[in-house]
Amino acid sequence: QVQLVESGGGLVQSGGSLRLSCVASRIIFNIYNMGWYRQAPGKQRELVASRTTGGTINYADSVKGRFTISRDNAKNTVYLQMNSLKPEDTAVYYCRADKPSLGQTFWGQGTQVTVSS
């Protein structure tokens, strides 16, 4: 069974930084597009950043210039470097792997990020 395990969340003051990691197991990591999503209380889950196998990167407008997604295929890991954090970045952050041609999508269990003002 495919597993995606996030880590690196926590409590940080406004303006601070965090680095999230997502380690994938039981998956051919380098053929999957990887992404980070977040869900704040009372809101829908939204895309934060994604990186395809071909290297195409997308960011939500709200995080452009502050967040950076990267992946290390040798470590089966995708990262999200978050700088200049704001209280509105507070959410549960989820890692996602998808391979549209196979109709497969996998999610991690999420990691809480809380930014205090």
SSE map:
Elements: E1 3-7, E2 10-13, E3 18-25, E4 33-39, E5 46-51, E6 57-59, E7 67-72, E8 77-82, E9 91-99, E10 104-107, E11 111-116
Parallel strand pairs: 2-11
Antiparallel strand pairs: 1-3, 3-8, 4-5, 4-9, 5-6, 7-8, 9-10, 9-11
Notes on the protein architecture:
With 117 residues, this protein is mostly beta strands. The chain contains no helices and eleven strands. 0% of the residues lie in helices and 55% in strands. It is globular, with a radius of gyration of 14 Å. The model has no long low-confidence stretch (mean pLDDT 96).
Summed up, the helix count is 0
Order of helical and strand elements = EEEEEEEEEEE
Rg, Å, rounded: 14 Å
Q: How widely separated are the two ends?
A: 40 Å
Task: Please state roughly what percent of the residues sit in beta strands, choosing from under 5%, 5-15%, 15-25%, 25-35%, 35-45% or over 45%.
Answer: over 45%
Mean pLDDT: 96
- Percent helix, as a range, is under 10%
Structural class: mainly beta
Shape: globular
Oligomeric status = single chain
Number of strands: 11
Main sheet makeup: 7 strands, mixed
Poorly predicted ranges: none
